[in-house]
Structure formats: structure tokens, C-alpha cells
Amino acid sequence: MIQNAFQSIKDDFQRSLFYWLTFVLTTIFMFVFFQIACSPSIGMTFIDSHNSIVTTLSVFVIFICLLSVFFANDFYVKKKSKELAIQLVCGATFRQLTVFLLSQTVILFCLAIPIAFLLSYLLLSLLPLTITFSQEGMNVTLSMMAFEVFWCTILNLGYAYRSSIVMLIQGDRASLKQPLSLPFHFSKQMKKGLILVMFVGPIVLLYIYGKETSSTILFSMIGMIGLYQFLGQVIIPDMNQWIQQKLDSYLSLVYLGFLRRDIIFMKNHIVFQIASDVLMIGLFVMGIDNTLYMILIYVSFLATHCLLSLTILFRFSTEMIEREKLVVTLKRIGYENDALKKILRKEIILLYGMILLLGLFYLFNILLSLYLHGLMDFMILVVMILTFMIPLMLCAIINHYQYQKQMNID
Amino acid sequence: MSEYILQAKNLTKIYGLHSENEFEALHGIDFTVTSGEFICIMGPSGSGKSTFINNISTIDMPTSGWVRIHDIDIRTMSSHEIGKFRYQNLGFVFQDFNLLDTHTLFENIAMPLSLAHIDRTQIIQRVQAMAKQLNIEQLLNKYPYQCSGGQRQRAAIARALINQPQIIIADEPTGNLDSENSHELLMLLKKLNEDYQTTIIMVSHDPFIASYSSRLVYIKDGYIEQMIKRESLTQDEYFQKIVELNSAESRRHFQ
Fold first, then answer.
1. Most buried one in A131, A150, A277, A290, CB count within 10 A?
2. Where in this chain does the record put each ABC transporter domain (chain B) (predicted)?
3. Local confidence band at A183 (pLDDT 50, 70, 90 cut-offs)
4. Out of A173, A247, A337, whose CB is closest to B79?
């Protein structure tokens, strides 16, 4: 099984590389974060925690890391479903299947640690502050990494346990969940109006009450509920109508359908990504008068944003696996390679463009209101916006490259 | 203009050419189809049925020999011309339906029309009319994974027929259907063939399903081994002949 695991990593090098990269990034992030958090100037301790912002931030950071590992694991394992099905058919037991999956994770994890530590030291030395090495920071990082391995074990055990041969071969089917029915009924227009108020309203309030930094977080979180509803209740139904309007455009008909599916499939990720960024900006403003806090929160913002962008990349890549067959069908109907290339490009541009626009709509307004209230200078505003845009744009480019390669239409 | 809607001459398909794994799947097959025929292609597993159907329908290209549809050699077509040719002349029905799970049944059926640059109002009218004919008009806003196998196959047929193609290529179209839905599908194909002179080329393993055709082509080891025409035979007599051919082939293994 362990030999098979090595072979499997070799055979599926590109995916293994992405999984490995997730481990490298999460380890760097945790190491840098806890070195700064446990440095004497911040003084965070896990035994007697007294620093509320940093404690909240730590919990959030750990959560994001685990979430990122979860999606990386899901993305990595799903592609191996046929391989697992063959092993089950050949009589592999639950324990053997777990060892097979877990050995791959552990091998990649062990390969990631030395590189991650090296890069973390480099990163810490590049920061404009002297951070003395903290043993507690190191201990916490190691504990968290051990927890990460434990988490992967749980994930892989769960995957091996619930895997049946039929399910592995057929794959998961997407399903549309019925929304909860409420005891009262709004007309469609009224519902849309209310959702728009919930989505846009908090931004207006930010400009009025944005001087209170805690209100930034509160209003933004209300806005995120509005965003979630906006995606599900406004964008998706509007897309159905949009597709009906574009029936005579053979490219739009396909890429809008693909995009609709992406939004249904990734709605939670998109909202979570934007909500996490908004929360980080709220925390960033709370610690703006202390440079070390600011660096700590900025590093957290950058890292959580990168990791969450990666989860979007992984989620899209998982969906991409199902698309291979659809592209073959489109070719049989009469779609040429050039048309298919355009479809895939437009889908990626629209998906990532939508995430960027929705995110920027909130982030820009929050940052601008903070700037207008004198809580942030213009350079930080620009840096934060670039930090938001660049990782997502890189993920879009990687996804586009992967998509074309996977669909074999180069 | 030739009397044949489709002609194949010396059709040869070699996989892995000039490699260690070189394998000749079809050996110089000659084959003609006249307009309005209902042909069933039968043969044991691995005999080259699917390779044959793929090569005569532009899905794959022969290694040597030629295939002409409406007197046009498909090997001389550019990828753009092949795409156009497919949505204008051919309709495909497959065993696993090949519908796009990302799109509703309506959108799936509309795709060939959209490719043919038909205007929106016409698309809506034609999709609705076709759906009504196939009794799936209530399901148009559903996604394929929300429908049963029979409903999905009817939607796949609606998509194959929406452009009124002259040739329908069906690769084991009843493979995933129960007997009732299989019979319904075959009756539909037969009706299309009789009422609209649509040429149908279908692959099947099942002698009963093959008995709906007007000509049976039996392929074995990459060659056309036999052909049976139904002509004036009743369906039952034709079925008996197909069964005899099949069992004779099976009996050869005992000798």
C-alpha cells in the first residue's frame, strides 16, 4: 500500500503538487503567525490567554487552515476515486484503503515541512521588525501541524469508510436544495428588494457610523448575509432568465450554464472568502495603532485570503473533473475546439470577475469609509486592495491553464 | 449526386500507429447506406462496432480509406466544417444519454439550434414542440439528474432530432433503459424512419432490438462478416434470422 502511495503521488504529480503546496502555505502561515503572536510585544500565551483580538484571530487562522486542508484533501482524493474503486474490487480492506490515502498525505506533509520552515525564516527576516524566536510559537505551530495530520487522518478515514464501489465509480451528483419555506410570503420583487437593502444597506451605514471600528465588523457581517441571499435568490434566478435571453448565442448558452452551476456549487466558498476578508479588515483597523498588531493582522489577512483563494481553486478543479465528459458531448453536438476554448475562458473570467467585483464592492467601500473617517491612510488602502486582487487573479490563471489542459482542447 | 447518403471505402482504423501497441481495429471495410435505411450494427464485444460507428460519423477519423457523407469526404473537412456538418446533418444518441448536467433539459435540447444560429423565438417554439412530441414538456426546466433514465433518454433524442438531421447515429441507445422505455424508444426511431425517411444507424447487442431495423450488419474482428436484409420478412421471422446468426457465431466457439 505504501509503495502504491508513492506510485500514486508520482502518477498524479500535478495534483500532488497542489496538495503539497497547501501544506507548505498552511505551515508557513501558522509558523509566521504564532512567532509574531507569541513574541514579547504581543505576548500571547495559550495557557493564560488575555489578548482577545489575537485569541480570536488565532481561532480564525486555525479554522481557515483546516478548511483549506479539507478542500485540498477533497480535491486530491476525489480524482482517485476510480483508483480506490479498483482497490476495493481487488479486496482492499477499510484499513488498507486508509493506509493508502494517509501515506500519501503524510509523505507530502513531510516533504512540505522543511521547505515551509525555511521559507518562514526567510519571511520573518524580511519583515520590517525584529522578531525573536519564540519557543512557545514553535510549540504551538508543531501542535497545530500535528492537529492538521490528525484532521487529515479523520478526513481520509471518513472517505475510506463511506466509499462504496458504485459511489466511487459514479461520482457525486449535484443537487439543488429546496429553500426553507417561511411562515410568511413575500412577492418575488419584494424579496429581491429586501435582499438588495440587506446587501447594499450596510455599506451606507458604514459611511455614517464607520468611525466606530466594531461597527465596521457588525455592518459588514449583515452585508454578508445579504450577499449570500443575493447570490442564491437574485443572481441564480436572473441567470436562468439571462440564459433564456441568450438562447441564440451558442457560446453564451454554454458558458452561462457552466457559470450558473459554478455559483450554485461554490456559493458558500465565495461568501466565506469575502466574509473572511471583511472580518480581517475589521480586525486590522482595531489594531491599527500598534505596528506589530498591524503586521500580524496583515499577514493573517494575506495568508487567509491566499488559502481561501486556493480553496476556490480546489473547488473549481474538483468540478472540472466532472466537466471532461461534458466537453466531449459538446464536441459531438458540433462545438469546435476554438469555441470550447472561448467557453472555458469566458466561464473563468466571469466566475473570478464576479468574485472580484462582489468582494471589491464591499472591501473598497469599507476601506474608503475607513479612509474618510481618518482611520486608514491611502497607501494601506491600495495595498489591501492589491492583496485581495492578486491571489484571486493568480488562481484564475492557474484554473484556466488546468481547465484547458484537462479538457484536452489545446 | 450519388444514390448513397453515406459511403465508406476500404475503411481502416489502426490505433497506436507505429508504436509497440499498434492494433488494427477495422480492416478495409466497404459499406454503403441509402437514404431512409434503418441499419443495426451487431457483433461480439471488441469486434469493432463502436470504432466503426465513430469512424463513419465524424467522431473519429479513419487511418486509411475514405468515408463520404452526401458525397463529401470527411477527411477533407476542416474542424470548423466538421462541427458545422455534425449539427446540420447528424444526430447522436448514446447509451449514457450524454446530457449536460449543468444545463436544464430545455437548454440541452436548444444547443444544436443555437449552433445553427436559429433565432430565439424559433428555438423556443421548436424545443417546446419537440418536447411535447416526446412527452417531456413538463420537465423542460429540470436538470438531467432530476429526471429518470427514460426521461433523460427522451431528452437526448429530442436534442438529436431538433435539427431534423438526415442521419441518426445511436450507440446502444437502450443500454440503460428498462424494457418498456426501450420499446418506446424503438417505436419512436421506427416512426421517424418511416414518416420522415430519417436514416438510422444503431449499434445493439440485442437481437430483439435489432429486429426493428431494415438491415443488419454483423461485424466480427474488424470485418463485416454478414448482412441480413429484412425486406418482406415479418419482424418475428427477421428476429429468428438474427438469433440464428448470433447463436451460430456463439456455437463456433464450441468447435
1. A277
2. 6-246
3. low
4. A337
Let me know whether A133 and A49 are in one domain: yes
Chain A positions contacting chain B at CB under 8 Å are 173-176, 243, 245, 247-250, 253-254, 257-258, 260-261, 322, 325-326, 328-330, 332-339
Indicate yes or no: CB of A176 within 8 angstroms of CB of B59.
Answer: no
Q: What is the pTM of this model?
A: 0.79
The range of the structural domain enclosing residue A89 comes to 1-173
Q: Which residues on neighbouring strands pair with residue B31, listed in sequence order?
A: B8
Given a cut of 60, whether residue A199 has pLDDT beyond it is: yes
Q: Which of B169, B176, B184 is nearest to B136 (CA)?
A: B184
Q: Which residues of A touch B118 (CB under 8 A)?
A: 248
Least-confidence region, from A6-15, A351-360, B144-153: A6-15
Answer yes or no: is pLDDT of A351 > 80. yes
**Whats the size of chain A, residue-wise?**
410
CATH at B246: 3.40.50.300
Identify whether the C-beta of residue A161 lies closer than 8 Å to the C-beta of residue A96.
Answer: no
Given a cut of 60, whether residue A347 has pLDDT beyond it is yes
How many separate domains does chain A show? Answer: 2
CB pair distance less than 8 Å for B98 and A332: yes
Q: Which residues contact A314 (CB under 8 A, 6 or more apart)?
A: A18, A22, A71, A72, A74, A75
| Domain total of chain B | 1
Question: Do A29 and A65 contact (CB within 8 A), yes or no?
Answer: yes
From chain A, the residues in CB contact with B124 under 8 A are 247
Same domain flag for A331 and A201: yes
| Rounded Cα–Cα distance for residues A249 and B63 (Å) | 35
3-class DSSP state of A182 = coil
Note whether A325 contacts B98, CB cutoff 8 Å: yes
| Residue numbers in B near A335 (CB within 8 A) | 83, 115
More confident of the two residues A280 and B126: B126
Instruction: Dump pLDDT digits (tens) for B79-119.
Output: 788 888 888 888 888 888 889 999 999 999 999 999 989 99
Residues A224 and A339 both lie in one domain: yes
Burial of A275 (0-12, 13-18, 19+ CB in 10 A): buried
Residues of A in contact with B112 (CB under 8 A): 333-334
Q: What is the pLDDT of residues A20-77, one digit of tens each?
A: 888 888 888 888 888 877 777 666 555 555 556 667 777 777 777 777 777 777 777 7
- Does A179 map to a domain? no
